[in-house]
Amino acid sequence: MPATLQRQAGDGLFAWYDIMAVDETATNPFYRELFGWDFSSEPRPNDGYRMVTFEGQGLGGSLPFETESGRSHWMGYIQVTGIEEHVARARALGATIFVELMEIPAVGTFAVLDNPTGAPFYLYEIAPEYRATATGYDRGAGHIIWNELITNDLAAATAFYREIAGWELTPVSPEPLSYTIARVDGEPVAGLFQPPQLPEHSAWIMSVATDDIDATIAKAVELGGEVVHAANAVPGVGRTAWIADPTGGVIGLMQPESGWLDRL
Asked: Taking the complete model, does pTM exceed 0.90, yes or no?
């Protein structure tokens, strides 16, 4: 990472998640019933933002959103130090900045951008008392367990995140699968995958842990969701699937094998 970009321990971790919800009356009850997540009853006055918590801990938020696609989508916040310099460097590397620096008083500053392959995400500089110190991928059912970039250009994506997020990137599968593990201070934080059939648009997919992936999928369908990718076994990791909520927002599921993180 160039010397102009600051870094401290914990930078590059995912620290927060938002659903950009085209219809909160559909999305929020769906996730509440499926995962047990709590959505604040009173939205933030200026933009309608609602906090999402699970087991008493902040997980993210829900933001009313209008988009031409008519589909909701999830976005993760990547923690950094010196966000002004990071945004400027991201722009120079080919990122599109959708929302310039915005401050949340007493909490932090964020920007919304995409990587050069078109997958949107947040950069987030957080007040010290709110900084993430670990991925939290080992906390059990209902918690976020993994983040995965599905990209149409793995080389461009890895070069971008190596510099902007400070990730240590290690290929773990041969061509044509092209799967790479990203680490922060030695801890696995994300996977980057270029499938043999390139997607039209790159995207980040966050996954939620479940103790019974088949039962969770069945419940999601009962609640009005649909299966995007059926459950399949990933050796040494566990069983994974993708589902969509009733407004089209895609989210992953994982029923992990014991010790899966240690094998990455």
From this structure: yes
